[in-house]
């Protein structure tokens, strides 16, 4: 009887530590922050061109101003970002190479982390994100399954866990209540109507999600 109890206790302990190890995310110290797989990296919005236009119609808080977001993955001590890039479509890149390009124009990169109750969704999200790599960038921002934009990529990665939700998109300048002139011209050039009210998401909306908490800014020397 004692042997049976001892064996059962050992199996329980092994199962407990196995569960911890499989749920734990890989971590790495980078630019003054400890990052982990599943963190989201937000890129500060610029004031002009497409970046400024995105931020003008989506910014929710004065201190939160983002125009791009990607999902971090740490593997064999290398930090990657999985994201839908306007330049390259949906891609997995070494974070250093992305920041060496972006840092020249954009000095603000902010890391957000999923809350404790949402951490279990990360492995599935990474797997899902990797199935979307190779798809082109969605320049219309109208949701479809063949092309993706940055926040759409992240929302889909975590869709099984229902962490993020789609909302009616707006392209109106909140100061005037009229369609932002950039977007009016943008969609005219695409030969389509402004998709006002159609479902979508954006980096500022994701950053405001209740399942995310800000970890800090990446330091640029």
UniProtKB/TrEMBL annotation:
<protein>
    <recommendedName>
        <fullName>Permuted papain-like amidase enzyme, YaeF/YiiX, C92 family</fullName>
    </recommendedName>
</protein>
<dbReference type="Pfam" id="PF05708">
    <property type="entry name" value="Peptidase_C92"/>
</dbReference>
<dbReference type="InterPro" id="IPR038765">
    <property type="entry name" value="Papain-like_cys_pep_sf"/>
</dbReference>
<keyword id="KW-0732">Signal</keyword>
<feature type="signal peptide">
    <location>
        <begin position="1"/>
        <end position="24"/>
    </location>
</feature>
<dbReference type="InterPro" id="IPR024453">
    <property type="entry name" value="Peptidase_C92"/>
</dbReference>
């Amino acid at each position: 009887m004692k042997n049976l109890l001892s064996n059962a206790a050992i199996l329980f302990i092994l199962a407990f530590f196995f569960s911890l190890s499989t749920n734990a995310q890989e971590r790495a110290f980078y630019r003054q922050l400890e990052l982990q797989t599943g963190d989201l990296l937000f890129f500060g919005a610029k004031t002009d061109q497409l970046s400024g236009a995105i931020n003008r119609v989506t910014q929710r808080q004065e201190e939160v101003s983002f125009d791009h977001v990607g999902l971090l993955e740490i593997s064999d001590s290398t930090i990657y970002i999985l994201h839908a890039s306007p330049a390259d479509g949906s891609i997995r890149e070494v974070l250093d190479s992305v920041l060496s390009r972006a840092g020249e124009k954009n000095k603000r990169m902010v890391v957000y982390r999923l809350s404790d109750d949402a951490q279990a969704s990360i492995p599935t999200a990474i797997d899902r994100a990797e199935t979307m790599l190779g798809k082109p960038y969605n320049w219309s921002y109208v949701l479809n399954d063949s092309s993706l934009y940055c926040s759409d990529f992240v929302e889909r990665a975590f869709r099984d866990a229902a962490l993020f939700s789609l909302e009616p998109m707006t392209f109106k300048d909140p100061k005037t209540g009229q369609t932002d002139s950039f977007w009016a011209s943008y969609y005219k050039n695409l030969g389509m109507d402004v998709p006002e009210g159609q479902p979508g998401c954006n980096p500022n909306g994701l950053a405001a999600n209740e399942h995310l908490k800000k970890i800090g800014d990446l330091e640029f020397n």
